[in-house]
Design a protein that fits this description.
- The chain is mostly helical.
- The protein has three helices and no strands.
- The longest helix has 36 residues.
- The chain is elongated and about 50 Å long.
- The termini are far apart.
Length: 104
Amino acid sequence: MNLTNSISGFAMLALAALPIASLPASALAAPASVKIADINLLSPHGMATFDKRADYAARDFCREERSLSVAAACRVAVKEELSEKVTAIRSARLEQASKTFAAR
């Protein structure tokens, strides 16, 4: 009975490790990030700066991918996620700016 439990436990650990082993190298890398504290996301110049930084972050994050199509898909996915996040931040800042303006 103890041998069966050991084998069962080992099999469960092996099954748990399978998804991690199948992930691309970029999935295990540090998350992609873009510094935005020093730019005005409400201006065209600030957004252009963000776009450049997002491109660089996506290229850096996906640099380990060997397949060109996988690397391209990785970059697109990273930039889409960064774009979604910056849109939420811009909306919050715009709302904050409108409240500040209305209070004056």
